[in-house]
């Protein structure tokens, strides 16, 4: 194997990007570790309490914004992205506008992306090892305190939009991010520049007005936070605006003009399972816990837990058009063992009683 002084790092960087594409990633870039500006932004966001109950965001301290504190010796970060909406997925707006259906964020319809991408990143590291010998690295996919969006921007993969999601000029924003922290002194790429201009469609369309200002998201109002991260009761004032969104929310991406360039996923594992791209609320609400666990095995939906799943569906049913089927489904769980579920079912039944 070549000595460190004999390695052509520019050539290696080109190979890494080529290998990433061969492994199924849509793009790859290389960033340095200076995230000082983003660290200041993160600290203000935490100070404002916009992280809600995600206490781990504060507990991690500066490890999130200083890669070498998370993984000692880190000099560069290889950032990758992977498109996630496969062909044939039901039209998102059609589902959102059908009150009897349940809307699940499009990233969560297939296999858990963490496993898919982490395996690919491990293969990428093995390819690098095969070329230069052993080196220090660590693969991350939304699994540790990593400022993945800032790193992706610095690696040239896209800019952070006003909705705080990374946007790529050629591919929109429907993609996952992953990172390979490394001690290799690779040449870095040019950061992406912002191209949102005066557009504010994402801000205006947010059902709960969670984007409180351009580039500022209050997670406490965000439907993705409410349906996944929040444990316990969803604030009553935010339940009606949730509509039928029972796991995550895509509105700010769906309205983004840049997503006319979105690319379809090539990864078969991201294909919708159990027709979850267009399910009926009452059918999902009838799942037992055993059915929930069996049908969401290996999927990101598991994160909400069965109680959270029923809570979210109760809100969706409360917002659904009044029908005997909907009311009967809610009444069937009026005495659920979970107090949280009972509370949201009671709220939903009151909505239909008023109708």
UniProtKB/TrEMBL annotation:
InterPro entries noted in UniProt: 4Fe4S_Fe-S-bd, 4Fe4S_Fe_S_CS, QueG, QueG_DUF1730
Keywords: 4Fe-4S, Cobalamin, Cobalt, Cytoplasm, Iron, Iron-sulfur, Metal-binding, Oxidoreductase, Queuosine biosynthesis, tRNA processing
GO molecular function, one term: 4 iron, 4 sulfur cluster binding
SUPFAM superfamilies with a match to the protein in the record: 4Fe-4S ferredoxins
Pathway: tRNA modification; tRNA-queuosine biosynthesis
Name of one Pfam family that matches: Fer4_16
Binding site for [4Fe-4S] cluster 2: 206, 222, 249, 252
Active-site residues, Swiss-Prot/TrEMBL: 142 (proton donor)
GO biological process annotation, one example: tRNA queuosine(34) biosynthetic process
Span of domain 4Fe-4S ferredoxin-type: 184-216
Family: Belongs to the QueG family.
Name the UniProt record assigns to this protein: Epoxyqueuosine reductase
Gene that encodes it: queG
